[in-house]
Write a structure and sequence with these properties.
It is a single chain. The chain is of the alpha+beta class and 154 residues long. It has one domain: Nuclear Transport Factor 2, Chain: A, CATH 3.10.450.50. Helix content is 26%, strand content 40%. A six-stranded mixed sheet has the order 2-1-6-5-4-3. The protein is globular.
Length: 154
């Protein structure tokens, strides 16, 4: 199965790949999102390590059970051949109504078929007041006219 755009990436295709990843994660559908990764995908996400697609799906299910009202923006940072680096932020609240903005960077490596085979994420959580939220679109895909990270000063 091919998952375009395929490496080697151009600036346009790298931006498209980043937006497709953002859209997938904003769906909060663990099964759908996991399909973007190779069967033997390797992840480091904070202190969690994932070594296949099934573990990725399980990880995402647990993540979105905890992170309510999840909304994510990703932005291309750099790319070369089959690698992409992104920075991102997402907002979410816990089951007690406490709000957070999580900031991170990811390094991605893609297989020739366009599936991600390596994902290394570093993330920091910042408690915020609900009034400080910046991501207000309805749950799901970020609207095309919604500002990105740079436009929001993040």
């Amino acid at each position: 199965m091919l998952r375009p755009p395929l490496p080697p990436f151009t600036e346009d295709s790298a931006r498209q790949k980043v937006r497709l990843a953002e859209d997938g994660w904003n769906s909060r559908d663990p099964e759908k999102v996991a399909q973007a990764y190779t069967r033997d995908s390797q992840w480091r996400n904070r202190t969690h390590f994932v070594s296949n697609r099934e573990q990725a799906e399980s990880f995402l299910s647990r993540k979105w059970e905890k992170e309510n009202q999840y909304r994510l923006i990703k932005e291309l940072f750099a790319f070369k051949e089959n690698r992409i680096a992104v920075r991102y932020a997402y907002e979410w609240c816990d089951d007690k109504g406490n709000w957070f903005r999580s900031y991170g960077n990811e390094n991605w490596v893609f297989a020739e078929d366009g599936l991600m085979k390596e994902r290394y994420a570093s993330i920091n959580d910042l408690p915020i007041d609900e009034s400080d939220r910046k991501f207000h679109w309805p749950q799901g895909r970020r609207p095309d006219d919604h500002p990105g990270l740079s436009e929001l000063g993040l």
